[in-house]
């Protein structure tokens, strides 16, 4: 058991219960297909890749014993199609799971066993289900030993294939952009800081500093090049930071970084609206008391309506 790969704050679920009980249907839109046939080589000493030995360096790879490293044939080939778990019953679209994605699920940091992988792929439970899955994996060059233990805590995200995880992140980003009340929040939080020009100037400097920090943070996350689905982009970051981002992305199957960027984007929209409120108040002649500032904001709101 790889104790250093455990998620400290994850909500653990029962492995057997996850494979049995997670059975909702698909999101409304299928996963976008990519044409890049390259894949991430993540190695684990309990997953044997059959084929010629390849020891090319990869900044996203995980060290392992050399004798267990091999090449999986046809990583872009579709292994199976899986109905999603999060949509309404009226939606029946499926997500394609490639050989490369199966390889990632069997490799660090998750190292899924046959029981969990069968649940993720929505395979019906049967007496010889584990053996059947291992035989199918053997045909694509992956050897999953019986009795293998998972390396990471099981969470709700474990049940999602990469296509649905990315779809969920995109929908979350859309809701954050379209529905988060940036302007009302900005007006409410800025109102107590409009007591005078000095206070407004100090508040504005704080907001500008926060805006810069948020930009630097999202710029970094947007440079994450962890393989996902059938897409294998070339890394642009240094290997040490890319490996850390890849660990998080692989644990969340592409959802994590995109969801964080969406949330930080909502914060950035709040900052923009707060700066607008301060600039409008600062242009008014003379210092304003908090009560006067509140009246000014109310008049501005009525004028917009």
Main features:
mainly alpha, single chain, two-stranded antiparallel sheet, 305 residues, 10 helices, 2 domains, elongated, disordered N terminus
Descriptive overview:
The chain has 305 residues and is mainly alpha-helical. It has 2 domains: 3-154, no CATH class; 164-304, no CATH class. The protein has helices at residues 15-21, 99-106, 114-120, 129-139, 162-179, 182-190, 197-221, 239-252, 255-283, 290-304; strands spanning 48-49, 78-83, 94-98, 142-143. The strands form 2 sheets. Strands 1-4 form a two-stranded antiparallel sheet. Helix 1 (15-21) runs parallel beside helix 3 and helix 5 (162-179) packs parallel to helix 9 (255-283).
Ordered list of secondary-structure elements with their pairings:
Blueprint: H1 15-21, E1 48-49, E2 78-83, E3 94-98, H2 99-106, H3 114-120, H4 129-139, E4 142-143, H5 162-179, H6 182-190, H7 197-221, H8 239-252, H9 255-283, H10 290-304
Helix pairs in contact: 1-3, 5-9, 6-9, 7-9
Indicate the radius of gyration in whole angstroms.
25 Å
Within the largest sheet, what's the order of strands?
1-4
Percent of residues in beta strands:
under 5%
- Helical content, roughly? 40-55%
Largest sheet: 2 strands, antiparallel
Order of helices and strands: HEEEHHHEHHHHHH
Which spans have pLDDT < 50 for at least 5 consecutive residues?
Answer: 1-70, 287-291
Shape: elongated
